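Record pair follows.
FIRST:
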Amino acid sequence: MSLEVWAEKYRPKTLDEIINQRHVVARVKVFVEEKNIPHMLFAGPPGTGKTTMALCIARELYGDQWRANVLETNASDERGIDVIRGKIKDFARTIALGGAEYRIVILDEADALTADAQHALRRTMETYSATVRFILICNYSSKIIPPIQSRTAVFRFKALSEDDVREFIQRIVKGEKLKIDEAAVKAVIYLCEGDLRRAANLLQAAAALGDKITEEMIYEVASQARPDDVKRMLENALKGRFKEAREILYKMLVMQGLAGEDVVREIHRQIYALNIPEKAKVELVEAVGECDFRISEGADALIQLEALLARIAASKAKAG
């Protein structure tokens, strides 16, 4: 069974089931009740319900015939101008089924469209506005050209809180009759960072390992650095114990096979919880940023992270 099965299974089917985004649901419901939606732009963090809301709109507008009246495409796969001029324009030309006045094009990851494709899309939106409505979905609305933004109703989705993620986890636990301890729930909440799709994937992968989901299982399937390990590594470096800090780093990168980028990301998250002066945190963030840049440019992750730990330990030695 492939991953994302549970994410799809527990995806809300109606607008009222969508978690947290009440400020968006309230506005969208008005359009749906009047059966006359405008072109829309959904922007916000991943896994917060943007695509789900677009599909819920289609279900409530068209009922059982919603699939026949909806074209769902992903701009990260088909991002060129040919897609707009061909596939999308052909769909926009056809008449809606079931007595509906218009059809819907759901364009996911629209911020991946090239500039030429976006300009072609703008023209298509103008020409076929009587027969089709566009729902553009993106993480960064700033990457959508202003002419398109001015032709759409913009809806900004909020990052989900821990309580929202916990509600979704409990929905899956109850539906699948899973056994899970509280530490594992907290680990899922921590790792998914408000992305419900990722939360469902972590639970599904962990459930395949045993009868009861534990914290260890969650971190094993996530293949991410454990916060406790990173915190101990940083504390050792801050106390000038470079050798002990390096041993923890070596275990994470070599023995556990973690990616250097993931370790850098977790170091960044742990900085703000450290018991050090604010000035030291600022300097540490700057050092982490430099390390992250070098790794992204192709430098060896182990060497760069060792250099980061050495820099932290050396600063302690100078201060001492």
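SECOND:
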Amino acid sequence: MVKQKTSGGTLLPGGQISLFAVRETPDPFRKAVQVLHSKPKSPLSLLQRKLGNAWLKNAIENQPDKDGWWQLGIKALATDIGFDSNNRQYLKESAEALMSIVFDWDVIAPADKKVKWKASVLFPEVEVLSDAVRYQFSSQMRELMINPEIYALIDMNIVRKFRRAASLGIWEFCVRFERIERTSEVPWEKFRDMILGESADNKTYQEYKFFKSKVLNPGIAEINAESNHTITLIESKIGKRVSVISFSVVRKVAPEPVVEDDRLAEIIAELVKFGVPQSEARKISKSNTFDVIKGALDYTKRRIADKKSSKIENPAAYFRNALTNHYAPSDETPQQTAKPRGSSEKSLDIKTAYASHQLAEAEHYFAELDPDDQASIIEHYNLQQTSVTLQLKKKTSKVAQVGFFQWLAKSTWGDPSAEELLEFAQGMLVGQGKN
């Protein structure tokens, strides 16, 4: 098979591209708040917490069989949770033990908003085969877990990094409150039981100072070192005694490049409002002069404000075209360039070639974005994609990959104009003439 190298990856015959091969992309799933804020009756090991996440994610992304069982291959499961040991017996025992753990659901919800059941197991049936794990959900929780209304995005790339069960439990509790940057206050004894299990009644953790030194402080240190958040413990006291605790939650951000011109900072903010990912907006500001960017931006604003013209459905895509073609407010509306002469078959060939070219460009564009912007784009794509088989998953088919980048190319740059197709066709002819 002959492969054609492109700037964004490897272009295969038929326009298929080898995707996601170079850079680790976010691997999020929606975890229902009822599970995030649950209290297990028994302690959960690190492996069991990771297993539960992998099974939840697999169930959200895949359909069960006709009997209501989900299946996940052992190799895929090990990769998903970062289990690099050959000790399959330990994996089997942990999976089977998870089947018997009872949870109190959403224990920090107001009393009038709690679900009607008090407790249940999450995975009542588990089978460990030689090459796969099969499991079922609690009938009470199944629909809630698969289609949660209130949830947090849990990134499995972060989950795999944790080496302490308590760290993972604390981090997941905090992620839910990322947008408001501070968690709910919880009596420290209740929080202890949420993290260590309700059976955590040994003398070691009967006093807050020991729970703090042995569990909270090491967990916070690992979270701040390994995750994409920085959390800080907040203690509230009654007299001299700590009564309730909470956490401040701040998402880490990549260091912003120094913008010497304040005007560029304002333009970056305007581009983000248009729907341009922030990481792309920063790159645009570094690779173009202020006047060029402002000219394209003002041109786009004028076009949007023009009530006599058709509505601009995708301002970000329109701006990218204005920037590429060096439009400016003083420019007249570009005249339509005559379409290339030739048969309809040749026109179709040009469009097909252009589409293949755009797939490669979309892959390259996606790889250049920051992980947070990538995660947001993937989530948006999956939400609008009605076919489960075409949604992006950890193990994604070629059809889904191509579908994603076709969607990304169109949402980023819009449909090609006659001028763009003509310019592309001319470029092809020049390239052929050099061969």
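COMMENT: Residues 1-23, 331-348 have pLDDT under 50 and may be disordered.
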